[in-house]
From TrEMBL:
The lineage of its organism: Bacteria, Pseudomonadati, Pseudomonadota, Betaproteobacteria, Burkholderiales. The keyword Membrane applies. It comes from Rhodoferax sediminis. Belongs to the ABC transporter superfamily. One of its GO terms (molecular function) is ATP binding. Residues 7-237 form the ABC transporter domain. This is ABC transporter ATP-binding protein.
Length: 237
């Protein structure tokens, strides 16, 4: 991590009650990069994302956004500071229309929401087509796109994605990873947390492997895809 890293996480320790889950995790995300964080079930991936976004308090360590220490901010203030998170399980508001879901995502940056809405419809034409329908009527993949677009409505400086492929049929998994790869054109750096290590590393620049609360490997994503340890443990090869 450098002073100009988009996101710099240093020595983060966090857990639940008497259980320490993260034992000093350091990762960084540079401008324009997609970084994949992969690891087995229970390694602490979700806990790390939630600690970065402030939903879980850090016991020690720090989180910096473009050189600004945001560790003391509540999660909603971190969103205002430019850190957006898409939670696991696509938390869209089912009864509300697609467009109202998007408007809610822009609440922290009033004024520019019409332009931003148009930008989202250019990125995700299917959402424009379905803009007046209740979000709950969309397919799983479309709801995931909506969750991502809603997070982008706040014009974030960094986007955190938690398991975007979870629960999607294989065809839709491919589609959602293609969408995430396309987001590279927006220039917004993305931290992508995934169980689907192969798909995540295939679109990422850099990758980290998290094992029981510690970073076990950190390398260029292409190098991790060729790494024998990664192949056996995470790629099923
Ligand atoms: P998954 O892909 O299954 O979500 P993960 O790598 O994201 O796995 P976490 O969900 O961060 O892992 O969980 C890490 C550890 O923390 C696990 O041992 C889990 O049982 C524990 N844990 C998670 N949430 C809680 C909680 N709310 N209370 C207590 N322990 C928890």
């Amino acid at each position: 991590a450098t002073e100009t890293s988009a996101l710099a996480v240093r020595d983060l320790v966090a857990g639940y009650g008497g259980i320490e889950v993260l034992h000093g995790v350091s990762i960084s995300l540079e401008s324009g990069q997609i970084v994949a964080l992969v690891g087995a079930n229970g390694a602490g991936k979700t806990t790390l994302l939630r600690t970065i976004s402030g939903l879980i308090p850090a016991r020690s360590g720090s989180v910096e956004l473009f050189g600004k220490n945001i560790s003391a901010l509540r999660s909603d203030r971190r969103v205002c500071a430019g850190l957006a998170q898409v939670l696991e399980g696509r938390q869209v508001f089912g009864p509300l229309s697609v467009e109202d879901n998007l408007r809610l995502g822009g609440y922290s940056q009033p004024g520019s929401s019409v332009e931003q809405l148009e930008a989202m419809y250019r990125l995700f034409p299917i959402l424009k087509e379905k803009r007046l329908l209740p979000a709950g009527t969309l397919s799983g993949g479309q709801q995931q796109m909506l969750a991502i677009a809603r997070a982008l409505m706040s014009r974030p400086k960094v986007l955190l994605l938690d398991e975007p492929s979870m629960g999607l049929a294989p065809l839709l998994v491919r589609e959602i990873f293609a969408v995430i790869a396309d987001l590279r054109a927006t220039g917004i750096p993305i931290l992508l947390v995934e169980q689907n290590a192969h798909a995540a590393l295939s679109i990422a620049d850099h990758g980290y492997v998290l094992e029981t609360g510690r970073i076990a490997l950190s390398d260029a994503a292409g190098a991790l895809l060729q790494d024998e340890r990664v192949k056996t443990a995470y790629l099923g090869l």
